[in-house]
């Protein structure tokens, strides 16, 4: 029997198995990560080898360098993940991998590694969307959380409001028409002379500033659930360049703070408006920008006021990690979705 014929049979059996151990692989950007996750909720290990210090030198992720470092690190990340979980490769029921969205070369390393493992172990291979993975991070942090709920997806690649009707049923309510919110944080950080990745740096600096800077900017798309951040990004860049050209003093902390206030107001306002309009009493946050302290604060406050329950991943599961991929892969399996054969390849973009 061919690998895939055997895999189809095993996949069907696993759908009703009581305990399922998934080994998951994530390499879509600059983190090489492998996790062992039981039944979508229990993370036995989640090893993340970050390349931040390497890419910092260039002010952002250099795709070719990211791919090379994934190749260099992935085998030792696997060994650590197995040893931390106290498991052997033979204990693994299925291998899951992020196939997109992300950097093509970086994704390919994880995809090929996962294909090889699945083939060698004779277990099913599950192809997972990175965006769904970010939503799945919440199942790890909140053991009782179940769909339906509304999700505010805020990462370096996506900014969207998504109806999560079931574990594997998603409906897009609104999304960015230009830049993602993460990109916008990174760009503002860069113009302020902060390190990569910019989001956490802006978050930190904003705490020392006041919301007193007026940018030449009006929030667009007021009556829609879509977002647009490129105008704000340009307004902040122009403000800083203008001051620098004229040699005028200004507070970088105030710029960070005022920028962050505008962004977090917009995200909070639209997420809560969508909860109201579509009748959701549960709001879930997903993606790296979900680690932003001011966004978390504002969402908490607004949700309390509006009687909406708020769910956010603990900080280490907000940014890229394989744990979240293993979590959602379990629900793919339950829904009979995602089984891949050895022709699986990477995709730089995926639909929500
Ligand atoms: O979800 P993620 O790890 O990767 C993608 O799937 O894109 O998100 C990365 C983005 C980066 O733009 C990073 O600057 C941003 O999340 N980020 C933050 C914070 N921590 C990470 N943005 C604002 N505040 C933070 N604390
Ligand atoms: Zn991500």
Task: Describe the 3D structure.
The chain has 11 helices and 11 strands. The protein is of the alpha/beta class and 352 residues long. It has 2 domains: 3-138 and 318-340, 2-Layer Sandwich (Nucleotidyltransferase, domain 5); 147-313, Nucleotidyltransferase, domain 5. The strands form 2 sheets. It has a 6-stranded mixed sheet, sandwiched between helices. Strands 8-7-6-9-10 form a 5-stranded mixed sheet, with helices on both faces. A hairpin with a 3-residue loop joins β2 (31-38) and β3. α9 (252-278) runs parallel beside α10 (293-306). The longest helix is centred in the last third of the chain and has 27 residues, at 252-278. The mean pLDDT is 97. The structure holds 5'-O-[(R)-(carboxyoxy)(hydroxy)phosphoryl]adenosine (KG4) and zinc ion (ZN).
Strands, helices and their partners?
Layout: H1 3-14, E1 21-26, E2 31-38, E3 42-50, H2 52-56, H3 63-85, E4 94-100, H4 104-121, E5 125-129, H5 130-141, E6 149-154, E7 159-166, E8 169-175, H6 181-191, H7 198-206, H8 230-245, H9 252-278, E9 282-286, H10 293-306, E10 309-311, H11 322-334, E11 339-340
Helix pairs in contact: 3-4, 5-11, 6-7, 6-8, 6-9, 7-9, 9-10
The structure holds 5'-O-[(R)-(carboxyoxy)(hydroxy)phosphoryl]adenosine and zinc ion.
User: Bound compounds, please?
Assistant: 5'-O-[(R)-(carboxyoxy)(hydroxy)phosphoryl]adenosine, zinc ion
Strand fraction equals 15-25%
Quaternary state, please?
single chain
- Globally, the shape reads globular
Biggest sheet features: 6 strands, mixed
Helix content: 40-55%
**Number of helical elements:** 11
Structural class designation: alpha/beta
Low-confidence stretches: none
CATH topology of the largest domain: Nucleotidyltransferase, domain 5
Termini distance?
35 Å
Quantity of strands, as a count: 11
H/E series: HEEEHHEHEHEEEHHHHEHEHE
* Broad CATH class of the largest domain: Alpha Beta
């Amino acid at each position: 029997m061919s690998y895939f014929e055997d895999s189809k049979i095993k996949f069907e059996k696993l759908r009703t198995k009581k305990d399922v151990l998934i080994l998951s692989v994530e390499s879509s950007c600059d983190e090489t990560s492998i996790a062992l996750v039981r039944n979508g909720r229990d993370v036995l290990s989640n090893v993340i080898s970050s390349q931040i210090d390497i890419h910092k030198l260039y002010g952002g992720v250099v795709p070719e360098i990211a791919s090379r470092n994934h190749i260099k690190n992935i085998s030792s990340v696997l060994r650590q993940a197995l040893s931390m979980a106290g498991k052997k490769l033979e204990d693994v029921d299925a291998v899951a991998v992020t196939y997109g969205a992300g950097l093509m070369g970086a994704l390919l390393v994880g995809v090929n590694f996962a294909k090889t493992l699945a083939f060698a172990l004779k277990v099913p291979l599950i192809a997972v969307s990175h965006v769904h993975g970010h939503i799945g991070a919440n199942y790890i942090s909140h053991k009782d959380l179940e769909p339906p709920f509304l999700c505010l997806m805020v990462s370096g690649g996506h900014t969207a409001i998504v109806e999560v009707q079931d574990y594997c049923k998603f409906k897009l309510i609104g999304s960015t028409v230009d830049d993602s919110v993460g990109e916008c944080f990174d760009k503002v950080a860069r113009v302020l002379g902060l390190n990569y990745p910019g989001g956490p740096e802006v978050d930190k600096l904003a705490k020392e500033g006041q919301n007193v800077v007026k940018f030449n900017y009006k929030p667009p798309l007021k009556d829609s659930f879509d977002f647009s951040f490129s105008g704000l990004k340009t307004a902040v860049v122009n403000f800083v360049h203008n001051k620098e050209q004229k040699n005028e003093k200004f507070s970088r902390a105030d710029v960070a703070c005022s920028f962050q206030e505008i962004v977090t107001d917009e995200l909070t306002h639209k997420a809560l408006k969508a909860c109201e309009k579509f009748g959701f009493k549960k709001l879930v946050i997903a993606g790296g920008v979900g680690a932003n302290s001011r966004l978390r604060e504002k969402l908490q406050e607004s949700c309390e006021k509006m009687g909406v329950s708020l769910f956010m991943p603990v900080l280490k599961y907000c940014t890229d990690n394989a744990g979240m991929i293993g979590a959602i892969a379990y629900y793919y399996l339950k829904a009979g979705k995602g089984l891949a054969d050895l022709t699986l390849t990477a995709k730089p973009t995926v639909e929500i």
